[in-house]
């Protein structure tokens, strides 16, 4: 558990977004954790557009992760409300609301429970604009869902289902890494004229703390960010995994290996150019995610970079990911793509 | 109905089973079944109970007071002074161990206005339909028949890839549309093109969609019959079953929040009621008090699956109450009954801000689609019975004719004009070119992302290099 415990004790100031900092000028904000940053974004979204709605299971009293705290009191129960326990109903209802020109910000309580809504997301939301020849769209739909490991979540409170959704033209998939990023990316997702699936790293809800500007700001979608510059190897990740990768970068540095770390932020449609430019510089690529390795989004990045950087590569692309098992409770420390596994892969790739 | 019941072994056996079961239950008095019938259908002895007598319906537009299985009997009253104070309301106690029966002893009756010969049944409640409206309704029902016939033939000739008729369900299509306001938002299944026809979608527009040409609003991306029109408040059809139901709840909620004098109206077939989205849609609409009219076309068959293989309930109408939704069963082949029921349901939905469920009993006279041969799984005489004896268009025509509003001459003129227009529409639609190739890549998102720009460029280069490998008629 050492690595996991280590993660839960971390603070995330060093992951602050240069990009975000640019877009939010020099204003500094209060120190906030990730769920509070999400909460702030939802307050702004509801305040800035009277035709926006927040709903899902238990969101009325503030939600099981407290992300919707205070919203119903401030904006009323017509705009912030509990729904029946039915994910396909929540997303279907959101599509209908969004198709009428509203912003429907829906919460799926855990990403592990998003599958009953898969049909509504894949067959309905994603194809709404295309199938109608742009007569109709449900671009006002944003689906928020906490994803990923939390140390004790077992099969059904730990999954990272992002790859399923990255196979669906018509939706966008966004995953933030920190409080400041979460606020800016969520506001962009809510205001983006396309349906967005927004996965929130639930491990970071309380653990990640950084200064978050109080005002309304947005961070552009489909733009990756180099959050640590280096020369020997490029590491690509998203969400909570970047914290682990950052630690591996620091340890590798002690051994004289200079790592470049990229936060992809938006997985669909993703920013190939930033990754490509970095790999052309370093000649090596490592991708890491919590989801099972087979069919994971790392495979897509790997294939794309092989196509684009074949002659520049000094070593095979390395993937450090979850195992091809269901997410296991007591074996979580073995299942996870830990710092140790990443560091080991960095060394093998650099010494290939 | 008797003729048809006699033909169906399944139904006969299920009736026997029900009668037998109910006899036993009555003897043992385990259960007190609700009686959801109107006065003239009940034997007089039933009225010995004041509780049942209170069910007498005076107007079809009024909501029937629900018979309550758990209404107290006199010997229960003392015990009922004690109540379980439960979240959501108090619940009375009983010392009698009593299971609610799985179904009523009588099936929920089917509201109708016209008899099989197109005569208005005396003492009936219905919303009057005047000459102008009645004639237009009939014209549209007949036009829908002609359209189905000609498009079906066009598919058989290989001119379009697919088609799906509404034969046998013309009354539900047209009468429901006639009962709605044009501002009501329709979320269709796929066997309701008559609603679109009623709202003014032209035969050319239908043809353009079926041919997937440049004038098709869907830009040729979907199979034939997947119509949609923003102008006419008719959401574009998608093939998955029942997905539109929870969406309708969201649409209704939006209309409610915007204080619009309109409701959402959504259609589904009997098979669709087995989908999870049916449950989601009804439950969300009920809980959110959204103005939604759910219209279920119970046509007996979901492709080859008979309703006896679809559910064990007395159809769909009984499901409304479980969700706290008012519901009515209506003869779907009686245009006046459908019109009255939908109009009343719509009024309730809009003025009271609540969902209403309508089960329209009908029959899919055509095959499921042009990819289906329904004689492989159902009896030809069954189809014939519904096609001839229970034909909704003929029945309505008789009524319109008896009123002196329609003649043989009108009939032949209408059908020959519709036929001519359709043939012209098909010829024109066939000549239109397809959408340019760039439309393959548009509308996935509001703005084309880089990956699609690259793929478009790559594909165009390849097509220009080897045009013989691709179908002609596309502007690259």
TrEMBL record, chain A:
Residues 32-207 form the Transketolase-like pyrimidine-binding domain. Keywords: Mitochondrion, Oxidoreductase, Transit peptide. It catalyses: N(6)-[(R)-lipoyl]-L-lysyl-[protein] + 3-methyl-2-oxobutanoate + H(+) = N(6)-[(R)-S(8)-2-methylpropanoyldihydrolipoyl]-L-lysyl-[protein] + CO2. Gene3D superfamilies: 3.40.50.920, 3.40.50.970. GO terms for molecular function: branched-chain 2-oxo acid dehydrogenase activity. One of its GO terms (biological process) is response to nutrient. SUPFAM superfamilies: Thiamin diphosphate-binding fold (THDP-binding), TK C-terminal domain-like. It is found in: Mitochondrion matrix. Its cofactor is thiamine diphosphate. One of its GO terms (cellular component) is mitochondrial matrix. Its main location: mitochondrion. The keyword Transmembrane does not apply. The keyword Mitochondrion applies. It comes from the Eukaryota. InterPro entries: THDP-binding (IPR029061), Transketo_C/PFOR_II (IPR009014), Transketolase-like_Pyr-bd (IPR005475), Transketolase_C (IPR033248). Heterotetramer of alpha and beta chains. This is 3-methyl-2-oxobutanoate dehydrogenase (2-methylpropanoyl-transferring). It comes from Capsella rubella.
UniProtKB/TrEMBL annotation, chain B:
It comes from the Eukaryota. GO terms for cellular component: mitochondrial matrix. One of its GO terms (molecular function) is metal ion binding. GO terms for biological process: branched-chain amino acid catabolic process. Residues 140-435 form the Dehydrogenase E1 component domain. Keywords: Metal-binding, Mitochondrion, Oxidoreductase, Potassium, Transit peptide. InterPro entries: Alpha-ketoacid_DH_E1_comp, DH_E1, THDP-binding. SUPFAM superfamilies: Thiamin diphosphate-binding fold (THDP-binding) (SSF52518). It catalyses: N(6)-[(R)-lipoyl]-L-lysyl-[protein] + 3-methyl-2-oxobutanoate + H(+) = N(6)-[(R)-S(8)-2-methylpropanoyldihydrolipoyl]-L-lysyl-[protein] + CO2. It is found in: Mitochondrion matrix. Its cofactor is thiamine diphosphate. Its EC number is 1.2.4.4. Gene3D superfamilies: 3.40.50.970. It is an enzyme of class 1 (oxidoreductase). Transmembrane segments: none annotated. Heterotetramer of alpha and beta chains. Belongs to the BCKDHA family. This is 3-methyl-2-oxobutanoate dehydrogenase (2-methylpropanoyl-transferring). It comes from Capsella rubella.
